[in-house]
Protein 1
Amino acid sequence: MGKYILKRIAMGLTTIFIVITLTFFLMNLIPGGPFMAEKAISAQAQAAMNEKYGLDKPLPVQYKNYLVNLTKGDLGVSVKQRGRDINGIITSKFPVSARLGGASILMALIVGIPLGSIAAINRGKLADNIIIVIATFGIAVPSFVLCTLLMYIFGVKLNLFPTYGLGSLKHYVLPVFALAFYPTAYIARLMRSSMLDVLGQDYIRTAKAKGLSTFVLLFKHALRNAILPVVTYLGPLLAYTLTGSFVVEKIFTIPGLGSEFIGSISGRDYPLIMGTTIFLATLIVTMNVLVDIAYKLIDPRIKLQ
Amino acid sequence: MKKRISILLAVLLVAATLLSACGGGGGASKDSKGDGANALAVCIGPDPETIDPALNSAVDGASMIIHGFETLVTIGKDGEIVPGQAESYTTSDDGLVWTFKLREDLKWSDGTPLTAEDFVYSWKRGVDPATAAPYAELFNVIKGYEEAAEGNLDALGVKAVDDTTFEVTLAQASPYFIQLAAFPTYSPVKKETIEENGETWATKPETYIGNGAFNVTEWVPGEYILLEKNPNYWNADTVKLDSIKFVLMEDPNAVLSAYEKGDILCAKDVPAQEIPKLREREDWHLDDLLGTYYISFMTQKAPFDNPKVRKALSLAIDREHIANVVMQGTYGPASNFVGHGLLDADGKTHFVDNSPEFIDITKHDENLEEAKNLLAEAGYPNGEGLETLEYLTNDASYHRPVAEALQQMWGELGIKLEINVVEWSVFTPTRRNGDYQIARNGWICDYNDPSSMLDLLASTNGNNDGQYSNPEFDEQMEIARTSSDQNVRFEAMHKAEQIAMDDAAIAPVAYYKDFYLLSDKVEGFFHLPLGYFNFINASVK
């Protein structure tokens, strides 16, 4: 298993390197630059800024410099948010997104898994139908609609929760709910279909024949096998949710990392594009390796080859 | 089996806890401060890219900077020049040498003394190529600017005669220099903190030292900036607020929600679909901005090298419909290039009121007839012979609806228009390079002088996107640039505008306005036509 993990890590590093290279050259291919504004800045100022950020050098040289700095762990400085370095932006903003994302994933798991299981054992009955409707709703409603609706009803009309910032625990309620809604629905659906699969298997029938209670049957015998698709989904879900959601952060004015992804691209903030991309890629690769390991823990039949 | 699941769950929980724990020093923070009785929370824009006075080039950044920094002179409620850090100033007879007398005992927010040397340092820093300031060119009226911008900072015509006497030598007698001296880019900044911290000085409250009515005590990027009253400000007695919180919201719905809840007392940038309803309210404000929304024609290529074609298109625009219906009344219909708010030679009347109305916006039907005739004279009767024209725009605010309205209006001339919507970062360079036929354009002035608008059409100007070139126009603008006699300057600028409008160098569409919600609890606030929101002397009832 150790050898396998090492191999996966090596593959992961290669993937990240390819991501770095592709992103670097692709972002330089898109037209425009970081210093574009409605008002033209003078050629002199433009030249001074290009020189300051090393953008006056040929691309291969910029690429080489970037890699050299990267090996030292230095992601460079933002060209748009003057005076801020990328490491600082990520270390100050990622924890905010991660806390929010972590809480919503936890909520998605705690709510989604039982919901899916309950739907499966009550297949075709009222409970199943209600859960399916909720889950479909959760997947179909775009997050900006949900956020605005939540804000309007619970923030403005009922005045139960604050509508911006993350000052206290109360501030988390609306954004966490908004963030968790989609994954909860998705997990419930995944859980329902895989649970149905598992419930049809012989060993479950045997367990039933032995007269085990539904609860033990479900959560002791069926869950272990039924949860595998959810674990697969959990890897990328963790990576994407922890790094923040552009929409939720924008609407609830949360200083997270999500808005930096989009902002850096539309603003052509090259170092920030690179920094956030590398960060996300590393996180996804790590999560995938962890998921592979988790597989082995949950289901010993799985061969890691 | 059970054990394995427990392990997995435990790992997940630990991971979640760790992630939460590592956020201890991170972005979110308590709303402990900024909520008192004399506290004001407002939203005038999202996170500024920078609040370093020399590096800022955005209007919302400027609004924040004027609360933390004070220039030599400032701009009052009615656009008048008010003494700031300087209690008085004199100009030499030739208008070249300006001597500012600073107040005695000026201090930085950290209590250390502020002297004329600080202005010398700050202005040189603004020009210094090593600073790489986008607005460095604003200093180009000062003697020696060109040389200083190459790196020889000592060439810049600024001098500290003594601690309280600051002397500026201009390249030409430019009476509007006093407007520039009030521009946030001209703010003094503290040498020690900048040399010690580099550009990061303007990102942390501890190192962000100012000389204005307030100083920054907290900045959570993407959430809020909190400023508290600066006891070391010379005029601190007149400042009533204990703190101002600029909430950095990006989503218009969120802005409106926070305003309706009373979390913020001033809201800029509300959802467009709510405007028709909000317009009827008492707390809705619509103020002049020094700027014009206009259309650039690529004048160096056919068919727009022909002034008649340009004029025909310009006349066919129903400006009242665009401003009042398409733009929901948040703009004013524009008959001229220089709009409301820009003052004339006397410093009181508006330039636009002393100019002819170049396009009579109330007579659209007659304008349309004339447009058809002009197009026929140009050799394209009913648009025949013209290929499909292309209109370049980005997709923000009202740009797309305006383009669609123009498509329909020009359709009446028999013109087929294709709308090409491109991303912002592609839009500006394409327009600047002249790779278009027709493009939307707009400009908001940096200082209250019509030259700041008219210069856009000078052949050598970097923002002359239509590449319009007329020696007669350039000649008038040269007079406006070099003369020290305001009457001569303004006469030349009136002539210049006449020339440009006769040539239909551009087609003015609408005058910009700022619209915002302001609670009647706020007193002593004013909005400047430059787009600045000034809460310095505000109070909350």
Protein 2
Amino acid sequence: MENDPGITPDDARLSLDTVSRITDSANTLVRPPFWLNIVLAISFGMMTFSFASMQHENLWTLGLIIGGIVFVLAMMMYLYTCKLLGAKVKLFPDTWLSLGSILGPAAIYMLVVLGGRALADGAGIAWIPYLAGVVNGTLLSYMLHNHSVMKFQGR
Amino acid sequence: MGRFNALIHAPNRLKLCALLASAAEIEFMVLRNHLEVSDSVLSKQIKLLREAGFVKLIKRKEYGRQRTWISLSNRGHKAFVDHVGELKKIVG
């Protein structure tokens, strides 16, 4: 079964197109419904905003905790919804590329969270927490909608 | 390093593997609807891949009904990724 196929580059290209098309369509199976996407994005944005705005256990500490609880509950709801609909989300990467497709956005989220905190608390720029919250919330929403499937192959 | 796999390369099985590689597990009915094939065609493809040790099939009773979940085995995942790698090598 495993030997030289003798297929032409055109055949191979067609097969690769099929794989890409199916992978893209698989995203529709495992992405969260729109309302859940919005809940996840808002709670994540709120966590980012609250973390940047926190000072001496002010009210935004509570915002961070509430945002975190809502985010975890919404994520559990997302996984449960996927299971009900018949497609379980892959939680752990199984190739280097899929690991990269998780770590890349994660590094950006982290950079926004820590950068927002540093600029708001250290440099005292008041509008930075708002920007950080919107950036992280929007990015998470985009990633959940368009890239719910971990990449297992390059294009 | 890619490695061509004739079993995976058949169109329906290639689509099936691509779909299974994108999720942890997918239910039989969802696979059938998504790939737009009949029950018998899908069963046949799954049987062939299962005999090669490329897919796992688990039947569970959930929410009052029997559900059949299909997933790629580690061996199947590796074979599929290798196969895609080989296709890329052919394309150049």
